[in-house]
Amino acid sequence: MSLSPENSNDRRLSLILLFAATLFASASLMFVLQPMFGKILLPLLGGSPSVWNTCMVFYQTLLFLGYLYAHLISTRQNTHRQVLIHGAVILVSLLALPVAMPENAAPPTESNPTFWLLWTLLIAIGLPFFVVSTTAPLIQKWFANAGHHTSHDPYYLYAASNAGSLIALLSYPFLLEPNIGLDLQKADWSIGYGLLCLLIAGCAFALWKSHRLNPIVEEAVGGDNGLSPYTQLHWLALAFVPSSLLLGLTNFISTDIASVPLLWIIPLTLYLLTFIIVFSKWHDAIHPWMVKLQPMILLPFIAYSFINPAIIPYWVNLALHLAAFFIAVMVCHGELAKARPHTRHLTTYYLIMSFAGMLGGMFNTFVAPFVFNGVYEYPIMIVAALLLRPGLKLSIGAEKLDWLKQALFPAVLLVFGIAVYLGIGNLPEYLDTIGVGLLVLAGLLYAFRSRPLTLALSTGVLIFFTMGLHGLLSNTLYQERTFFGVLSVRESVLTDEAGRPERFHEFYHGTTKHGAQRINSDQALTPLTYFSRPGPIGQVFSVFDNIDQNWEIGVVGLGAGTLNCYAKPTQSWTFYELDPLVVDVASNPKYFTYISRCNPKVNMKVGDARLSLEKEPDQKFDLYIIDAFSSDSIPTHLLTQEAIRLYFKKLKPNGILALHITNRHLALKKVLADHAKQLHYDALLQEFVPQQEIPLVAATDWVVMAEKPETLDPLRASGLGRWQKLPITFGLKPWTDDFTNIVTIWK
């Protein structure tokens, strides 16, 4: 139903502002709630990027259900009933306020926590988020029927919605998180939700009033008359690929570039920015340029980010991925905006978009981790985005001869790649030649910029061989993907003291090494990497060697099990590990023998360390070691004041807390220095750099803490390493379970 054109003469700016403000507020609340609740949940699941991606699937699913609801009531109910039904839904949702975690929420320790996470989100924020998710399509549909002179094309209001999303998303890490604790954030969000309900009531009143004052022409509620199946499938594909690309790039950044939680919001920010641009008045001028730029950016992107990423800094690699992602999504969303329908199909259009977004998230979260052992859905969607360039319909509808022409170059490329692979015996010797050849082929792809099918297939073949080549050169013995990331074991060769080649195994989480072991050597049981005997933790065991015979030792984070080789027969060791697969890999003598040969009876506890530690008796441990990493990041909930107090509650009066804080991006020593000052603990820091080149001994940073200074006096007096006081901190707000902020400690 809609107002007849002759009655669409309302030119009030206030009406636009009311509906735009409602959409802006709704989107802002949605994109504050997402990082806020993600932060609440992260501590329970080790800080994995999969937590963020699973939350995204939940949000996309509820968004689809909200759009479906908006579609059904706007096409099957008259205006007055729409207002009454939506008012009732809003009243019910108020029962869920204030938003909070369910009591006694604890994830499973032995199984994939995805479904537990989804259920927890549904209970905690399901109703309010559902109402927020209905706002964009329903309010735009109401505006289309409100009798304004721009009601015939309300899509420009979508820009206001996405602007709210973008501002909220960027304000969270830089404005809200640094200044407001989680408890206050939840309270403020609940107040904001109440204000949104008032704005929706204002829109409903404006709609009700316009329909009372103006005659209405009823339209047949046929729903999708005039929409061909091809059109709807095209909308679906144009929305599905960017959604999958968004989560794929997030996982790729965390796994292969840098595992920094702050970086997770950048792809989502760019994703929202594309919606703002393509639904703005500048779209018609910008879109052709995006189509032209896509193959231009694709060439250096493939050349450096896939063929040879090692020759450029990680931030340049990150910039290339983000640029290629942004332009690919701009092209897809640009085509989607060009194909937007008449307002009678508005809710169908948004419904298909949200359904495609949900499918993209489900593919990345529920399908890809079980089908792939790496983040392969990302390159697949890069190829799919190329397929969706303008001209696809002509390519698909071409005659058989044209199909052969389009497939000729990709087929030749595939045969050539297989021939090279089979014909070259020693790949490393020809690596430079192969790299140059791949770069030349990447350059040739530009010739097919107007043929989406040829460009996409050729790019797919090139990326396939490139990733296969990297896999062969890395000598990967084992690779598996879990909820917590991609784990791999690689074999490499070093030259021993006698100049002979010697094999060693490395354990990786994403791109970060979590341990290494020399194989078939008299040094096989020597701790290496961050846990070497010359390093800080080795010095701790050396200094206390005569008094630690009966120590009770707890370790958070297993890795390859390296620390296990410091164990003595009379000591008792307990490892706390979040990921069950890490336990399986570290315990498998095929890959590492630190556990099987040094201390096979070690106690293993799977699950979040803080939750497990709560169950331990007080004053149990003499030494407690924190070595928990998700790729390169320590989960922040293990570094809060409450966490430090818990560790000391479980330590004996003369116990020692040792924390491994090596990090490429964050100065974690500032956080611990503040804790030591606030909680009145004695603390020492060592930023260890090997004085001479020792195979597989890495530079590493460690902090040791104790309740009494005399506990650490033997370490100070030992002369081993450069132990020093922690730096004095100024203006750093203490990290607590309610407040953490990584921006203030960025290196």
From TrEMBL:
NCBIfam families named in the record? MFS_SpdSyn
Entry protein name: Spermidine synthase
Q: Which UniProt keywords apply?
A: Membrane, Polyamine biosynthesis, Transmembrane, Transmembrane helix
GO biological processes: polyamine biosynthetic process
Organism lineage string: Bacteria, Pseudomonadati, Pseudomonadota, Gammaproteobacteria, Methylococcales
Which PANTHER family did the record assign?
Answer: THERMOSPERMINE SYNTHASE ACAULIS5
Q: Could you tell me which species this protein originates from?
A: Methylomicrobium album BG8
Superkingdom of source: Bacteria
Tell me where the transmembrane regions lie.
Answer: 12-31, 51-70, 82-101, 113-134, 155-175, 187-208, 235-254, 260-279, 291-312, 318-337, 349-372, 378-395, 407-424, 430-448, 455-473
